[in-house]
TrEMBL record:
This is Glycosyl transferase CAP10 domain-containing protein. Residues 171-415 form the Glycosyl transferase CAP10 domain. The chain crosses the membrane at residues 44-68. It comes from the Eukaryota. InterPro entries: CAP10, O-Glucosyltr/Glycosyltrsf_90.
Length: 470
């Protein structure tokens, strides 16, 4: 990645408000005791008193100066105040808003290391499958790159973390992590059936029930220049405006999907659901030829159908948030993977589930049902869209990143250091669409509000009930 140089980054350090040494107070108490003795002893001349007093002042100054110097040198090794506690006495006395419910999955993703903690050996083991290593020390970001990454996934993932450091300076803990940018999760549970002490912690964009990958927001939230998809902070507003262009009942009464049908067998199968003149499946499937560019991929102009289909590609797809944001009732074909927010979605509340083994007939049934029950179908569409608008704001994307990294850092059994081959990551813009998207997604300083307050971990019975419900 050509933009990685030494010199950029976010400054930071340990807070000094709570002091760091008891030396000044101890010296002062001794001096007060000595002064008391001197005052009460009538046999000591005034000159002796003045001499001792001056010596005492000199010693006090020397001690105090020494304390300040030592504190300045050692401040970086003291525990940081990551997030304000409830009793921190913040002058604003503003209670942070609650995080969305899906934040609770952070605890589940990190549960494999709850008892063992995370050692340097574990992190180093994840290197086998990682594209790059990220190290944060004292609010500055460093990187080791190991392998080629498809398109600019790594560029915008790292850019997002730089923005997190800008948004919440001093709140991101020191840490060391390995990141993988391919589609599929790779840390298979089957490879670690007994010895849980060696599970490598690997950060990735998605997970499934068979893997231990730690789920992190994907690059597209900061832009995907290769397919002309803008940063989420701008695109989400355009999608909201796009919903107003055509009322739900005036939209095409069919299920719409547009994408690369060559990505995954499920999508090839979906293409069969197009009308062939003999059988009407109520679906309108459009293949997108990646080789011809992406001039016709304006997502905000695609909210023209009552129903939109979500289907996975090789693994999860970043398109889910764009599909759900359209006010159309989303038809979700049985997903096998999840990203960081999709575990907060509930079938028949936020979307309509489609049987993966009977795609065409299931789509036809859903559309027929929706066209006969327009108020119910419209409500499902609006509920899914509201979830995206309210619970997937960029602030919550950053808050999720922050809480995940904080909880991850709590598991560390060693102190992260800047490795020999790591270079500091700069806040460089680059050129072309990369520059444009970075400028659009850049945070312009610290947040004026605190991060959201996360709910406690799921109880076992809650998880069981949730899975049964889904």
């Amino acid at each position: 990645m050509g933009e990685i140089i030494v010199g950029g980054g976010v400054g930071g350090g340990a807070a000094a408000a709570d002091g760091g040494s008891a030396s000044p107070a101890t010296v002062t108490r001794k001096q007060l005791s000595m002064s008391g003795v001197l005052v009460k002893n009538p046999g000591v001349h005034a000159s002796a008193f003045v001499l001792v007093f001056l010596v005492t002042l000199f010693v006090t100054a020397a001690f105090f100066t020494r304390w300040v110097d030592v504190y300045a040198l050692t401040a970086q090794f003291r525990q940081k105040d990551i997030l304000p506690s409830a009793d921190s006495g913040d002058a604003s006395d503003v209670t942070p808003e609650s995080c969305p419910e899906y934040f609770r999955w952070i605890h589940e993703d990190l549960k494999p290391w709850k008892d063992t903690g995370i050692t340097k050996e574990m992190v180093e083991k994840a290197r086998e499958k990682a594209h790059f290593r990220l190290i944060i020390v004292d609010g500055r970001l460093y990187m080791e790159k190991y392998d080629y990454v498809f398109q600019t996934r790594d560029v915008f993932t790292i850019w997002g973390i730089l923005q997190l450091l800008e948004l919440y300076p001093g709140k991101v803990p020191d840490l060391d992590l390995m990141f993988m940018c391919h589609d599929w999760p790779l840390i298979l549970k089957a490879n670690y059936p007994d010895n849980t002490s060696v599970i490598p912690p690997l950060f990735h964009y998605c997970g499934d029930d068979l893997t231990y990958d730690i789920v992190f927001p994907d690059w597209s939230f900061w832009g995907w220049p290769e397919v002309n998809i803008m940063p989420w902070v701008k695109l989400s507003k355009e999608l909201e405006e796009g919903n107003q262009r055509k009322k739900w009942k005036e939209r095409e009464p069919y299920a719409y999907w547009k994408g690369n049908t060559y990505t995954g067998n499920a999508r090839k199968d979906l293409a069969k659901c197009n009308s062939d003149g003999k059988q009407e499946w109520n679906a309108r499937i459009h293949h997108l030829d990646w080789r011809k560019g992406f001039k016709d991929t304006d997502l905000a102009s695609q909210c023209t159908h009552r129903y939109k289909i979500y289907i996975e590609g090789n693994a999860w797809s970043v398109s889910e948030k764009y599909i759900l944001a359209c006010d159309s009732m989303s038809l979700v074909i049985t997903p096998h993977y999840y990203d960081f927010f999709s575990r907060g979605l509930i079938p028949t509340v936020h979307y309509w589930p489609i049987n993966e083994h009977k795609k065409c007939s299931s789509i036809k049934y859903a559309v027929d049902w929706g066209n006969k029950n327009t108020k119910k179908a419209q409500k499902i569409g609006r509920t899914g869209s509201r979830f995206i608008q309210k619970e997937l704001q960029m602030k919550f994307v950053y808050d999720y990143m922050l809480h995940l990294l904080i909880e991850y850092s709590k598991l560390f059994k060693y102190k992260p250091i800047i490795t020999k081959n790591a270079v500091e990551v700069c806040s460089c813009f680059g050129k072309g669409l990369v520059k444009e998207f970075k400028e659009l997604s850049k945070e312009m300083g610290p947040s004026k509000v605190d991060p959201c307050a996360m709910h406690p971990p799921f109880e076992d019975f809650e998880l069981h009930a949730l899975r049964e419900k889904n």
